[in-house]
Protein backbone atom coordinates (compact mmCIF):
# COMPACT_ATOMS: atom_id res chain seq x y z
CA UNK A 1 0.00 0.00 0.00
CA UNK A 2 1.84 3.02 -1.20
CA UNK A 3 1.41 6.39 0.32
CA UNK A 4 1.64 8.95 -2.44
CA UNK A 5 3.76 11.79 -1.10
CA UNK A 6 2.37 15.29 -1.35
CA UNK A 7 3.60 17.15 -4.39
CA UNK A 8 4.40 20.79 -4.67
CA UNK A 9 4.63 22.64 -7.96
CA UNK A 10 7.52 24.99 -7.64
CA UNK A 11 10.37 26.61 -9.57
CA UNK A 12 14.00 25.60 -9.95
CA UNK A 13 16.70 28.13 -10.78
CA UNK A 14 19.76 26.24 -11.86
CA UNK A 15 22.02 29.24 -12.30
CA UNK A 16 22.65 28.52 -15.97
CA UNK A 17 19.27 29.51 -17.32
CA UNK A 18 17.64 32.82 -16.53
CA UNK A 19 14.17 31.34 -16.65
CA UNK A 20 12.91 29.15 -13.85
CA UNK A 21 12.23 25.51 -14.63
CA UNK A 22 8.83 24.34 -13.43
CA UNK A 23 9.35 21.34 -11.18
CA UNK A 24 7.38 19.05 -8.93
CA UNK A 25 8.77 18.43 -5.48
CA UNK A 26 8.12 15.50 -3.29
CA UNK A 27 9.79 14.49 -0.10
CA UNK A 28 9.90 10.88 0.90
CA UNK A 29 12.02 9.17 3.55
CA UNK A 30 14.40 12.04 3.74
CA UNK A 31 14.99 12.41 0.04
CA UNK A 32 13.67 15.28 -2.01
CA UNK A 33 12.71 14.40 -5.56
CA UNK A 34 12.76 17.23 -8.07
CA UNK A 35 11.08 16.41 -11.33
CA UNK A 36 10.54 18.59 -14.37
CA UNK A 37 11.43 19.01 -18.05
CA UNK A 38 14.98 17.75 -18.31
CA UNK A 39 15.28 17.56 -14.51
CA UNK A 40 15.35 14.42 -12.46
CA UNK A 41 17.08 15.03 -9.12
CA UNK A 42 17.20 13.13 -5.87
CA UNK A 43 18.64 15.21 -3.07
CA UNK A 44 18.99 13.91 0.49
CA UNK A 45 17.20 16.24 2.87
CA UNK A 46 20.36 16.96 4.91
CA UNK A 47 22.20 18.25 1.83
CA UNK A 48 19.55 20.86 1.32
CA UNK A 49 19.57 24.18 3.04
CA UNK A 50 15.96 24.61 3.93
CA UNK A 51 14.38 28.03 3.84
CA UNK A 52 14.32 30.00 7.04
CA UNK A 53 10.78 30.22 8.17
CA UNK A 54 9.82 33.87 8.02
CA UNK A 55 6.28 34.91 8.59
CA UNK A 56 5.79 36.21 5.07
CA UNK A 57 7.47 36.06 1.74
CA UNK A 58 9.03 33.54 -0.55
CA UNK A 59 10.78 30.37 0.53
CA UNK A 60 14.17 29.69 -0.99
CA UNK A 61 15.87 26.32 -0.57
CA UNK A 62 19.48 25.87 -1.62
CA UNK A 63 20.65 22.73 -3.38
CA UNK A 64 24.23 21.50 -2.92
CA UNK A 65 25.20 22.48 -6.49
CA UNK A 66 24.15 26.09 -5.96
CA UNK A 67 20.79 25.84 -7.64
CA UNK A 68 17.78 27.14 -5.75
CA UNK A 69 14.18 26.23 -5.38
CA UNK A 70 12.09 29.33 -5.11
CA UNK A 71 8.54 29.37 -3.98
CA UNK A 72 6.61 32.62 -3.82
CA UNK A 73 3.84 31.35 -1.61
CA UNK A 74 5.47 30.79 1.75
CA UNK A 75 2.40 29.34 3.41
CA UNK A 76 1.98 26.79 0.64
CA UNK A 77 5.61 25.69 0.94
CA UNK A 78 5.33 25.38 4.70
CA UNK A 79 2.15 23.32 4.44
CA UNK A 80 3.76 20.99 1.90
CA UNK A 81 6.95 20.63 3.95
CA UNK A 82 4.97 19.83 7.03
CA UNK A 83 2.69 17.36 5.23
CA UNK A 84 5.77 15.65 3.78
CA UNK A 85 7.17 15.11 7.23
CA UNK A 86 9.96 17.65 7.03
CA UNK A 87 11.14 17.83 10.60
CA UNK A 88 10.99 21.54 10.86
CA UNK A 89 7.65 22.00 12.57
CA UNK A 90 6.91 25.66 13.23
CA UNK A 91 8.17 25.44 16.79
CA UNK A 92 11.40 23.77 15.64
CA UNK A 93 11.98 26.60 13.19
CA UNK A 94 11.38 29.09 15.90
CA UNK A 95 13.72 27.23 18.21
CA UNK A 96 16.38 27.05 15.54
CA UNK A 97 16.50 30.72 14.74
CA UNK A 98 16.21 31.69 18.39
CA UNK A 99 18.68 29.02 19.36
CA UNK A 100 21.18 30.54 16.99
CA UNK A 101 20.52 34.01 18.34
CA UNK A 102 20.89 32.72 21.88
CA UNK A 103 24.16 30.97 21.13
CA UNK A 104 25.41 34.08 19.37
CA UNK A 105 24.58 36.31 22.31
CA UNK A 106 26.10 33.86 24.76
CA UNK A 107 29.31 33.84 22.76
CA UNK A 108 29.29 37.61 22.77
CA UNK A 109 28.73 37.77 26.52
CA UNK A 110 31.51 35.24 27.11
CA UNK A 111 33.85 37.23 24.90
CA UNK A 112 33.08 40.35 26.91
CA UNK A 113 33.60 38.53 30.20
CA UNK A 114 36.87 37.07 28.95
CA UNK A 115 38.06 40.46 27.81
CA UNK A 116 37.15 41.95 31.15
CA UNK A 117 38.66 39.10 33.20
CA UNK A 118 41.83 38.57 31.24
CA UNK A 119 42.12 41.22 28.56
CA UNK A 120 41.68 44.30 30.71
CA UNK A 121 43.87 43.11 33.60
CA UNK A 122 46.54 42.07 31.11
CA UNK A 123 46.30 45.36 29.29
CA UNK A 124 46.30 47.33 32.52
CA UNK A 125 49.30 45.36 33.72
CA UNK A 126 51.14 46.21 30.53
CA UNK A 127 50.02 49.82 30.78
CA UNK A 128 51.24 50.00 34.36
CA UNK A 129 54.78 49.21 33.30
CA UNK A 130 54.96 52.26 31.04
CA UNK A 131 53.36 54.65 33.52
CA UNK A 132 56.05 56.54 35.41
CA UNK A 133 55.98 56.32 39.20
CA UNK A 134 55.52 60.05 39.52
CA UNK A 135 52.02 59.49 38.14
CA UNK A 136 51.34 57.28 41.16
CA UNK A 137 52.46 60.17 43.35
CA UNK A 138 50.16 62.65 41.63
CA UNK A 139 47.22 60.28 41.72
CA UNK A 140 47.83 59.29 45.35
CA UNK A 141 48.17 62.88 46.51
CA UNK A 142 44.88 63.83 44.91
CA UNK A 143 43.15 60.81 46.40
CA UNK A 144 44.63 61.54 49.82
CA UNK A 145 43.26 65.09 49.67
CA UNK A 146 39.85 63.80 48.76
CA UNK A 147 39.81 61.25 51.58
CA UNK A 148 40.87 63.92 54.06
CA UNK A 149 37.92 66.05 53.05
CA UNK A 150 35.66 63.06 53.35
CA UNK A 151 36.07 60.23 55.80
CA UNK A 152 39.25 61.15 57.68
CA UNK A 153 39.99 63.52 60.56
CA UNK A 154 43.31 64.37 62.24
CA UNK A 155 44.73 61.70 64.52
CA UNK A 156 44.40 61.97 68.28
CA UNK A 157 47.46 59.82 68.89
CA UNK A 158 50.36 61.55 70.59
CA UNK A 159 53.52 62.21 68.61
CA UNK A 160 55.26 59.62 70.78
CA UNK A 161 52.67 56.95 69.99
CA UNK A 162 52.90 57.72 66.28
CA UNK A 163 56.65 57.59 66.13
CA UNK A 164 56.77 54.34 68.12
CA UNK A 165 54.61 52.68 65.48
CA UNK A 166 56.57 54.23 62.62
CA UNK A 167 59.85 53.13 64.16
CA UNK A 168 58.75 49.54 64.56
CA UNK A 169 57.60 49.43 60.96
CA UNK A 170 60.89 50.97 59.80
CA UNK A 171 62.76 48.24 61.65
CA UNK A 172 60.71 45.54 59.93
CA UNK A 173 61.32 47.20 56.59
CA UNK A 174 65.04 47.38 57.22
CA UNK A 175 65.06 43.67 58.04
CA UNK A 176 62.91 42.75 55.05
CA UNK A 177 64.81 44.85 52.54
CA UNK A 178 68.41 44.68 53.81
CA UNK A 179 69.80 45.76 50.43
CA UNK A 180 67.29 48.53 49.86
CA UNK A 181 64.71 48.27 47.12
CA UNK A 182 61.75 48.87 49.39
CA UNK A 183 59.00 50.87 47.74
CA UNK A 184 58.57 54.46 48.79
CA UNK A 185 55.98 54.74 51.54
CA UNK A 186 54.60 57.34 53.88
CA UNK A 187 52.56 56.57 56.94
CA UNK A 188 49.55 58.79 57.72
CA UNK A 189 47.90 58.57 61.13
CA UNK A 190 44.29 59.65 60.87
CA UNK A 191 41.03 59.25 62.70
CA UNK A 192 37.92 57.98 61.04
CA UNK A 193 35.40 60.83 60.78
CA UNK A 194 32.10 59.88 62.50
CA UNK A 195 33.35 56.31 62.61
CA UNK A 196 33.03 56.24 58.83
CA UNK A 197 35.60 53.54 58.32
CA UNK A 198 36.30 52.44 61.89
CA UNK A 199 39.42 50.41 62.69
CA UNK A 200 41.06 50.34 59.31
CA UNK A 201 44.07 50.78 57.09
CA UNK A 202 44.46 51.36 53.40
CA UNK A 203 47.09 52.19 50.83
CA UNK A 204 46.88 54.73 48.04
CA UNK A 205 49.04 55.02 44.91
CA UNK A 206 52.39 56.64 45.56
CA UNK A 207 52.87 54.83 48.86
CA UNK A 208 50.45 56.68 51.11
CA UNK A 209 49.43 54.28 53.87
CA UNK A 210 46.60 55.44 56.10
CA UNK A 211 46.23 53.89 59.54
CA UNK A 212 43.23 54.87 61.65
CA UNK A 213 43.40 55.57 65.38
CA UNK A 214 40.66 52.99 65.76
CA UNK A 215 42.90 50.31 64.27
CA UNK A 216 45.75 51.32 66.58
CA UNK A 217 43.35 51.01 69.51
CA UNK A 218 42.02 47.66 68.31
CA UNK A 219 45.55 46.22 68.26
CA UNK A 220 46.96 48.17 71.22
CA UNK A 221 48.18 44.99 72.92
CA UNK A 222 49.31 43.41 69.61
CA UNK A 223 52.03 45.65 68.15
CA UNK A 224 53.33 42.85 65.94
CA UNK A 225 49.92 42.39 64.37
CA UNK A 226 49.71 46.13 63.76
CA UNK A 227 53.01 45.92 61.91
CA UNK A 228 51.51 43.07 59.91
CA UNK A 229 48.64 45.36 58.93
CA UNK A 230 51.13 47.92 57.63
CA UNK A 231 53.09 45.19 55.87
CA UNK A 232 49.91 44.08 54.08
CA UNK A 233 49.28 47.66 52.94
CA UNK A 234 52.88 47.95 51.82
CA UNK A 235 52.23 44.88 49.67
CA UNK A 236 49.48 46.83 47.90
CA UNK A 237 51.96 49.69 47.42
CA UNK A 238 54.72 47.44 46.14
CA UNK A 239 52.47 45.82 43.54
CA UNK A 240 50.88 49.18 42.63
CA UNK A 241 47.43 47.68 43.15
CA UNK A 242 45.74 51.05 43.58
CA UNK A 243 47.27 52.36 40.39
CA UNK A 244 46.34 49.17 38.59
CA UNK A 245 42.73 49.69 39.64
CA UNK A 246 42.79 53.26 38.42
CA UNK A 247 44.30 52.22 35.10
CA UNK A 248 41.78 49.42 34.72
CA UNK A 249 38.87 51.74 35.42
CA UNK A 250 40.03 54.31 32.92
CA UNK A 251 41.86 52.11 30.49
CA UNK A 252 40.64 53.63 27.27
CA UNK A 253 40.16 57.27 28.12
CA UNK A 254 42.91 57.58 30.63
CA UNK A 255 45.74 55.54 29.22
CA UNK A 256 46.91 58.11 26.74
CA UNK A 257 46.69 60.81 29.38
CA UNK A 258 48.73 58.73 31.82
CA UNK A 259 51.41 57.90 29.30
CA UNK A 260 51.63 61.46 28.04
CA UNK A 261 51.58 62.80 31.55
CA UNK A 262 48.50 64.94 31.05
CA UNK A 263 46.60 63.66 34.02
CA UNK A 264 44.55 66.63 35.17
CA UNK A 265 41.25 65.34 33.83
CA UNK A 266 41.93 61.79 34.82
CA UNK A 267 43.06 62.69 38.29
CA UNK A 268 39.76 64.37 39.03
CA UNK A 269 38.04 61.03 38.53
CA UNK A 270 40.54 59.01 40.53
CA UNK A 271 39.29 59.49 44.10
CA UNK A 272 35.90 58.10 43.10
CA UNK A 273 37.52 55.03 41.60
CA UNK A 274 39.64 54.47 44.68
CA UNK A 275 36.72 55.08 47.01
CA UNK A 276 34.37 52.69 45.26
CA UNK A 277 36.42 49.80 43.92
CA UNK A 278 37.79 46.82 45.77
CA UNK A 279 41.08 45.08 45.18
CA UNK A 280 40.79 41.73 43.50
CA UNK A 281 41.25 38.55 45.50
CA UNK A 282 44.51 38.06 43.65
CA UNK A 283 45.70 41.46 44.85
CA UNK A 284 44.76 40.58 48.41
CA UNK A 285 46.66 37.31 48.18
CA UNK A 286 49.71 39.17 46.91
CA UNK A 287 49.50 41.69 49.75
CA UNK A 288 49.06 38.87 52.27
CA UNK A 289 52.08 37.17 50.77
CA UNK A 290 54.15 40.30 51.21
CA UNK A 291 52.92 40.75 54.77
CA UNK A 292 53.89 37.19 55.71
CA UNK A 293 57.32 37.56 54.08
CA UNK A 294 58.03 40.88 55.77
CA UNK A 295 56.98 39.64 59.20
CA UNK A 296 59.05 36.51 58.87
CA UNK A 297 62.08 38.49 57.70
CA UNK A 298 61.76 40.58 60.85
CA UNK A 299 61.53 37.50 63.06
CA UNK A 300 57.80 37.86 63.72
CA UNK A 301 55.54 34.83 63.27
CA UNK A 302 53.05 35.56 60.45
CA UNK A 303 50.41 33.84 62.59
CA UNK A 304 50.09 37.12 64.54
CA UNK A 305 47.71 38.14 61.75
CA UNK A 306 45.09 35.72 63.04
CA UNK A 307 44.36 38.17 65.88
CA UNK A 308 43.59 40.85 63.33
CA UNK A 309 41.10 38.69 61.46
CA UNK A 310 39.34 37.67 64.66
CA UNK A 311 39.07 41.17 66.02
CA UNK A 312 38.08 42.81 62.76
CA UNK A 313 35.33 40.23 62.28
CA UNK A 314 33.92 40.97 65.73
CA UNK A 315 34.20 44.67 65.01
CA UNK A 316 32.38 44.32 61.71
CA UNK A 317 29.57 42.34 63.30
CA UNK A 318 29.14 44.86 66.09
CA UNK A 319 28.59 47.96 64.00
CA UNK A 320 27.62 48.29 60.41
CA UNK A 321 29.92 51.12 59.46
CA UNK A 322 29.95 52.08 55.79
CA UNK A 323 32.81 50.39 54.09
CA UNK A 324 35.72 51.64 52.07
CA UNK A 325 36.20 48.72 49.68
CA UNK A 326 39.97 49.07 49.26
CA UNK A 327 40.51 49.26 53.02
CA UNK A 328 41.54 46.37 55.16
CA UNK A 329 38.35 46.01 57.20
CA UNK A 330 36.41 45.36 53.97
CA UNK A 331 38.64 42.53 52.87
CA UNK A 332 37.14 39.08 53.04
CA UNK A 333 38.12 37.27 56.23
CA UNK A 334 37.89 33.82 54.88
CA UNK A 335 39.30 30.63 56.30
CA UNK A 336 41.84 30.53 53.47
CA UNK A 337 43.50 33.76 54.51
CA UNK A 338 43.62 32.75 58.17
CA UNK A 339 45.07 29.35 57.25
CA UNK A 340 47.64 31.06 55.02
CA UNK A 341 49.09 33.08 57.90
CA UNK A 342 48.73 30.24 60.41
CA UNK A 343 50.65 27.82 58.20
CA UNK A 344 53.20 30.21 56.70
CA UNK A 345 56.72 28.88 57.20
ZN1 LIG B 1 44.37 44.56 51.27
Q: Can you offer a commentary on this structure?
A:
The protein has about 350 residues and is α+β, with helices and mostly antiparallel strands. It has 3 domains: about 5-90, PH-domain like, CATH 2.30.29; about 90-130; about 130-345, no CATH class. It is built from 12 helices and 10 strands. It has helices at about 75-85, 90-130, 135-150, 160-175, 215-220, 225-240, 240-250, 250-260, 265-275, 280-295, 305-320, 335-345; strands at about 5-15, 20-30, 30-35, 40-45, 60, 70, 150-155, 185-190, 200-205, 210. The strands form 2 sheets. A 6-stranded antiparallel beta sheet has the order 4-3-2-1-6-5, covered by helices on one side. A hairpin with a 7-residue loop joins β1 (about 5-15) and β2. The longest helix is centred in the first third of the chain and has 41 residues, at about 90-130. The termini are far apart. The mean pLDDT is about 85. Zinc ion binds near residues 232, 236, 284, 287 and 328.
Q: Which structural class do you get from the secondary structure elements? A: alpha+beta
Report the sheet-strand fraction: 15-25%
Point out poorly predicted stretches.
none
Fraction of residues in H or I helices: 40-55%
The biggest beta sheet, please?
Answer: 6 strands, antiparallel
Q: How many helices does DSSP assign?
A: 12
Give the beta-strand count. Answer: 10
Strand order of the largest sheet: 4-3-2-1-6-5
Query: How many structural units, i.e. domains?
Result: 3
Our measurement of the CA-to-CA distance between the termini, rounded to an integer number of angstroms, reads 86 Å
Shape: rod-shaped
Identify every distinct bound molecule in the structure, by name, code or SMILES: zinc ion
Rg from Cα = 35 Å
Amino acid sequence: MSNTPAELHSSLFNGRQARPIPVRLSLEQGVLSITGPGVQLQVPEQQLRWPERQRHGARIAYLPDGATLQHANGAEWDAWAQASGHLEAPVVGWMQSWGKALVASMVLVLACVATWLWGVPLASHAALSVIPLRMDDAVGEQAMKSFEQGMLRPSKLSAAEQSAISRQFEQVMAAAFPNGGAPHWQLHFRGSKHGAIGPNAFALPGGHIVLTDEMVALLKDKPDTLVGVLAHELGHVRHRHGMQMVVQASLLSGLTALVLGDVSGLIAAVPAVLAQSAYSRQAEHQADGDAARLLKAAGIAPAVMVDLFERITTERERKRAPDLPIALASHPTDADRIAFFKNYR
